[in-house]
Amino acid sequence: MKDYAAPVAGDYADGLDLLDAFASRARRAGPDPQIAVILPCHNEAAAIAQTVHQFRAALPQARIYVYDNNSTDDTARIARDAGAIVRFEPRKGKGNVVRRMFADVEADIYVMADGDATYDAASAPAMITMLTDGKLDMVNGARISTDAAAYRAGHRFGNRLLSGLVQTLFARDFNDMLSGYRVFSRRFVKSFPALSQGFEIETELTVHSLQLRMPAGEVPTPYSARPENSNSKLSTYRDGWRILRMIGLLVKEEKPLQFFAGLAGLMALPSLAVFASIFAEFMETGLVARFPSLFVSLTGIGLAALSLVCAVILETVARGRREARYMTYLQIPGPRG
């Protein structure tokens, strides 16, 4: 898997060339879509004004929304003074904020980023052009950074590990599954059933596009260090565990056949091994000397069979849920362009 988080200089230049190619086609004839920049924020007073100004310069026609998530500093006031539309979500957690933003904001195209001035606002027009030209529903901004302070080694390793796991389970190549910089179509946003509460929301967004087989793309985008006095809220281990748990939950919900068949295998193999040894002793002696072991092995085999039955039933249910979500998705017009 190619790692966009730690590229060589040639990869960086190729990524910027790709952005320039899309930006060169950004000014096209036709009706302009309504664009909303949505920025979830918690205690980003040191960076939010810079973030708003950068996106205003890159997308002068867009409405910029800052959703304050229970900040204890002056994030809301500073964002309002910078020209953003400020709204509030009292329930803490990025997932809760994204759910509220997707429900409240009406637009044709949504640009989501963090309010910490780490994402490259100048890449937004090219990402939007890629979305509209390709009739896509999501464009993911894969982070490119050569600054260790911007993208810590633990976060890079965790991102590669979790992105690779999702690629294996859901069969799609996203190099930076955990990026918070994305452009969405309206039909993606309005068909997304957000369940998570925190930073695992990026995983849920990615899996939603994969399960509905939405047309999606990814482009490398520069990633910078936070401004002075701006602190990250991401915990490598705590949030990594929450993301891993979310992946497990999504596998259970979206791929129950594989999930419960795997559990059946874990229960059946040792149970069958114990039962085989007891049966071999019985064939030699005509006696069953280990009744507790026999009982445990038969219980394990029974539970494995029950797990397989659940797998078949839940796979049918999951297929029905995917079809219902897809019908909702199809009822919403696609990107204009």
Describe the fold and architecture.
With 337 residues, the chain is α/β, with parallel strands linked by helices. The protein is 53% helix and 12% strand. The protein has eleven helices and seven strands. It has helices at residues 9-23, 48-58, 75-81, 94-104, 124-133, 153-170, 186-190, 201-211, 236-254, 256-285, 291-330, and strands at 35-41, 63-68, 85-88, 109-112, 138-144, 182-185, 216-222. A seven-stranded mixed sheet has the order 3-2-1-4-6-5-7, sandwiched between helices. Helix 3 (75-81) links the parallel strand 2 (63-68) and strand 3. Helix 10 packs antiparallel against helix 11 (291-330). The two termini are 32 Å apart. Residues 1-9 have low confidence and may be disordered.
Q: How many DSSP H or I helices? A: 11
What is the average per-residue confidence, as pLDDT, rounded to a whole number? 80
Largest sheet at a glance?
A: 7 strands, mixed
- The parts where pLDDT drops under 50 for at least 5 residues are 1-9
Helix/strand/pairing class, anyone? alpha/beta
- Order of strands in the sheet with most strands: 3-2-1-4-6-5-7
Question: What would the principal axes of the Cα set say about the shape?
Answer: elongated
For the secondary structure, the number of strands is: 7
Order of helices and strands: HEHEHEHEHEHEHHEHHH
Percent of residues in helices: 40-55%
For the termini, the CA-CA separation is 32 Å
Beta-strand proportion: 5-15%
